[in-house]
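Bit of a strange request maybe. I'm writing a small parser for structure token strings and I need a real example to test against, not something I typed by hand. Could someone generate the tokens for this chain?
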Amino acid sequence: ASSQEYQRRRRLRCTTHYTGGAYLRTGLAMPIDRREFLKLGGLALAGAMPELLQAGDALALRPAESHGHADYTLRIGRSLVELAPDHIVSTRTYNGRFPGPLLRLKQGRPVVVDIHNDTDTPEQLHWHGQFLPTAVDGAAEEGTPYIPARGMRRIAFMPGPAGLRFYHTHLHAGADLDLGQYSGLVGPVYIEPQQESGAWDREVFLTLKEFDPFFSKGGDMAMDFLRPDERDPALQRRGEKTMKASLAGGAPHGYEVGYQTFSINGRMLGHGEPIRVRAGERVLLHIVNGSATEIRSLALPGHTFTVVALDGNPVPHPAAVPVLWLGTAERISAIVEMVHPGVWILGDLADDDRTRGMGIVVEYAGYGGKPQWIKPPPFQWDYRRFASPDAPSPATPDETLELTFAKRNAALHGFNQWTVNGQPFDMQAMQPAFRLQYGKRYRLRMHNASDDIHPMHLHRHSFEITRIAGQPVAGVMKDVAMLGGYQSMDVDFTADQRGLSLLHCHMQLHMDFGFMALFDCA
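Reply from user aminoacidic:
Good idea to test on real output. This should exercise your parser:
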């Protein structure tokens, strides 16, 4: 299959459907305007006394300050999201909207956030991509306290590192498609560096998201858009042998998740405000893939994207590409020079997904008419494109940790179970699998014994990609990286965050069914 058919293939392979979870539930949190939003900061002491947390060595709140206003207030609740006038969904949101409000923070300036939970389910809010203490990071696996149902927490932290981050729920959803990132609990964060380069005229933030999820029985995942594409024969033999044995024993393919509607910034293609531009402008797009399970692509006919940052981290070699690919939870910052006047669709390569909403109109001043879509030529995504060709080889790590990821087809009531070195993560015990020493440099040598792509995320750290399918890489810093089917990847990081840090596949369906491991750094 061609890369343009990646999502279509996933949809067409479905043979049975099952709608999971209590999709529509009672309760409504109506959207709030800016004035009401700011007023909420003064309600921190309404009801029970909030739990005050100190986060970051440089930050301590005095008692008087704990009774004052927070810098930001986020309310978790249920609201209606109008994807289009004839398509409204009920979902969990931040502050009654999707995406949640853009939080612009300052590098080196402490921030206080009140998080209210207006639902009947304890929640977690994960500050994805930031280097925060476990009490604030937002993962129960690391020991972060829950935001209680009908309660709240006040947290304080020093934002960092600079760049495009985001916040999202980190709740275990399992078979409930109303929970976790199947919901609308996603919002962008931009941490302004102390000095901006100013190499663009303006910024536009885009959050990509699917709605109306359903379970399906699936098969193989197309992955031909990734480069390098060499597969490890031993991993492939292992994975295919296991799958053939499962199917021969009468097991069906395990459940996958599909979606009926797609959106950018909470609106389906053609139903939101266009991105209005002028010829000659340099527009910096900050793009967040807020999906629970989907890999996304974006193209803009007649234009190229100069990628300047991946996951908020500046790349050593900014490169122009015709198509962007983002694994689940990946972010890209890219400059687009507006040099092709007209009215265009910035959208996904998959025709089904784009026509069902995964796109947004780009409209030049002085132009009108029907937005145009032109399929770009085939293009493969390669992290090495953004590495520095002159960068020295990565430093030798103090220790290399071998991790093999494998799938047990339909092993848990029809759901696939995922293992790390032969063991699924135990949500009851939540025991660390690896012990790290503070300050040492570690290499994670990750082996994928499945044909699925896994966007691998390490909490509380950034890592350097140092090898993909045997090919060396240097200088590309990320916190999520797509590991190809039957491939290996090396990533290096320094254990400079004490306590527990979670490594997991960022596909909600995978992490909920075993694909997680804990590191403990002392």
